Amino acid sequence: MRVLRVLLVVLLAAGGFLFVYVVQWLRERHARGGPIPFSRAHILEHPLRPLIHPQRSTLEKFRFKPGDTVLELGPGIGYFTVEAGRMVGPEGRLLCLDIQPPMIGALRGRLEERNVTNAHPMAGDALNLPLADNSVDAAFLVTVLGEIPDRPRAMGELRRVLRPGGVLSISESLADPDYQLEDSVRDLCRASGFEVLDHSRERLGYTMCFAAP
Ligand SMILES: C[S@@+](CC[C@H](N)C(=O)[O-])C[C@H]1O[C@@H](n2cnc3c(N)ncnc32)[C@H](O)[C@@H]1O
Fold it and tell me: How far is the CA of 193 from the centre of ligand 1 (A)?
């Protein structure tokens, strides 16, 4: 009897949590517009996130290697950045560009704390990347695309800065209120001249990799 009561309480708590999450998700999807505010950035570090977005295995899909120059577009407070910096190695460079200076400030602190010296945070806009043509080997965006208002223009910028054959990786998660459907991401990238290399499904999301023309 006691076990049943405990089970009921657990189920009710889980149901309540899910309900609140879905209501919040719907509100943000329809009302927010623009990037996730810095005041809500703690959600990017939710303790359950590694279950749906494990850092290492997600990054391994992005096809960059030690020594590469890699652009992380929209790193936020750096959920993926420390691990990505390790994977690029001492000969590589990780350029971390986010439109919100407070995100960049928090990221900088995190990198200093973890002694990551090959990652370079900078404030900037995906619509006007402060990078030279053909200057990066790979670029990745995790739950960022839906926050960018003019996505075709951002794709044009990514195409410009990636070297020919460079890899663009886009990872989307349903947990994100700005979730982008697979077909629309594929169409968007193809329209900018990218060619699909790889597509993998994950818990509550997917990753697609494209080759730059
Ligand atoms: C949902 S967060 C994801 C952060 C990180 N990629 C992660 O998965 O934890 C999206 C990030 O993209 C950034 N962002 C949104 N629009 C942007 C733009 N136009 N240019 C650069 N960064 C942008 C936001 O400031 C925010 O930090």
Answer: 23
pLDDT in tens, 99-119: 999 999 999 999 999 999 999
Which one has a higher pLDDT value, 173 or 21? 173
pLDDT tens digits along 178-198: 999 999 999 999 999 999 999
- Say whether both 8 and 57 belong to one domain: no
Regarding the beta carbon of 75 and ligand 1, being less than 6 Å apart is answered: yes
Amino acid identity of residue 87, one-letter, is M
Alpha-carbon distance values, 115 to 81, 108, 122, 156 (Å): 12, 10, 17, 34
CATH number of the domain that residue 49 is part of:
3.40.50.150
Judge if 173 and 73 occupy the same domain. Answer: yes
Residue 57 and residue 16 in one domain = no
- Band (pLDDT 50/70/90 cuts) for residue 17 is low
Could you tell me the residue range of the domain that residue 55 belongs to? 38-211
| Substitution site in 83, 147, 207 for ligand 1 pocket (most atoms within 8 Å of beta carbon) | 147
Q: Which distant-in-sequence residues (6+ apart) come within 8 Å of 183 by Cβ?
A: none
CB of 84 sitting under 6 A from ligand 1: no
Residues 52 and 77 in one domain: yes
User: What is the identity of the amino acid at 156?
Assistant: G
Total domain count, the chain: 2
Q: Would you say the CB of residue 35 lies under 6 angstroms from ligand 1?
A: yes
The total number of residues shown for the chain amounts to 213
- Shared-domain flag, residues 1 and 44: no
